[in-house]
Specification:
Blueprint: H1 20-37, H2 43-51, E1 65-69, H3 72-75, H4 80-90, E2 95-101, H5 119-129, E3 134-142, H6 158-173, E4 178-184, H7 191-206, E5 210-215, E6 217-218, H8 224-232, E7 237-238, H9 240-247, E8 252-255, H10 265-282, E9 288-294, H11 310-324, E10 331-336, H12 343-353
Parallel strand pairs: 1-2, 1-10, 2-3, 3-4, 4-5, 5-8, 6-7, 8-9, 9-10
Helix pairs in contact: 1-8, 2-10, 6-7, 10-11, 11-12
Length: about 350
């Protein structure tokens, strides 16, 4: 999958996510999309059909949106002027959660406090400038599965899972409103991840916090996660059943509906509509479901910037919401990522998704 966009002066701390493994998954995704997904049962036509029609007029923001923010907000590179600019940017939108990159975790699950030296300033400043907005600590790491494999976190290790729970308690004690986990690549049906969430939820709730996770996409065709798992050793997709199991163990789940390798807006928008409907069907009503919007423009084999546009994603989200659960309040979009976003991205988000709906 594509590398994360790099802000100027980026520190040595690497953000989780678009690692070498994800770039490999990008190639796998292309093979699967071109040779499996699109040919089977006229999938390309089905995606275009899914993108057809007019979204419902009431399919717009519920005031539960989020945005992923880079590490610069907690390491000293961002300051008061930046926060004032962010406040202006968020005005009139439905964004209420900030996922602030605070990790990455160590491979043993721990989190050195030196990774977020300016968190106290940020939390205090946001409380003062944006009192209705919640700040969540975005934590993550690359996952490894094979015995003896290095360079990542092994969820099969009980000590590592306990350390992750300790890291969650640590950031909540520091004043964050919640913890947002992005652990990748995560295999569908990984029972150790479910066990981790079962330990995390009561620990986070005990401190009055919110537990949020980033989620892989859902099988566009039944069983497709088995195919990608066989080819790459770990899956690009989760089964819908597994997505539901994860959703039932958290307060908020953000589906990363980008990096699809699809080459046209109509295909991508139809795919997002499909993913939205699948996510809403699987997640319990008490959970906030957020659909990721691509606020970045890396152009490579796994991500075609001309196809994966904010406008197409928003339209797909609105179509999927209107078809599956038009009355659902616990729903929103999540913007990835602040430092790579353009003015056009923000305009398309505002124009397509609209002002917060009245409760």
């Amino acid at each position: 999958m594509p590398r994360r966009p790099r802000p100027a002066g980026r520190p040595w701390i690497r953000m989780p996510g678009r690692t070498r493994a994800r770039r490999i998954l990008g190639w796998v995704a292309v093979v699967l999309v071109v040779f499996v997904v699109l040919p089977v049962a006229g999938a390309a036509t089905a995606l275009r059909v899914s993108y057809a029609g007019e979204p419902r007029a009431d399919a717009h923001t519920r005031g539960r949106d989020a945005i992923w923010l880079g590490h610069a907000w907690v390491d000293g590179r961002r300051g008061e002027d930046d926060l004032k600019a962010l406040k202006r940017r968020l005005a009139g939108t439905g964004i209420r959660d900030l996922y602030v990159h605070t990790g990455p975790l160590e491979h043993d699950g721990s989190l050195p406090a030196k990774r977020y030296p300016r968190a106290k300033w940020l939390l205090s400043a946001v409380k003062r400038q944006l009192p209705e907005v919640r700040v969540q600590a975005w934590l993550g790491d690359r996952l490894v599965y094979d015995e003896g494999e290095r360079g990542g976190l092994r969820l099969a290790d009980g000590a590592a899972r306990r350390a992750v729970v300790g890291s969650a308690r640590q950031v909540l004690k520091a004043g964050f409103d919640g913890v947002h986990f992005d652990l990748e690549p995560l295999r569908s049906d990984d029972g150790d991840y479910l066990r981790l969430l079962e330990r995390l939820r009561p620990a986070v709730r005990a401190r009055g916090g919110l537990l949020s996770v980033a989620a892989h996409q859902i099988d566009p065709l039944p069983g497709l996660h088995h195919v990608s798992g066989t080819l790459a050793g770990h899956g690009k997709w989760w089964s819908q059943e597994y997505f539901g199991k994860v959703a039932r163990r958290v307060d908020q789940i953000a589906l990363m509906s980008y990096d699809t390798a699809l080459p046209a807006e109509s295909l991508y928008g139809g795919y997002v509509a499909q993913q939205t409907a699948l996510a809403l069907e699987a997640a319990p009503a008490r959970v906030d479901v957020l659909m990721g919007l691509p606020f970045y423009h890396t152009d490579d084999v796994g991500h075609h910037a001309s196809a994966e546009t904010v406008a197409a994603a928003v339209r797909g989200v609105r179509l999927g919401l209107g078809r599956e659960a038009p009355g659902r309040r616990r729903f929103g979009v999540a913007l990835y990522v602040d430092f790579a976003a353009t003015e056009q991205d923000w305009k398309d988000y505002r124009r397509g998704w609209g002002a917060p709906a009245e409760s």
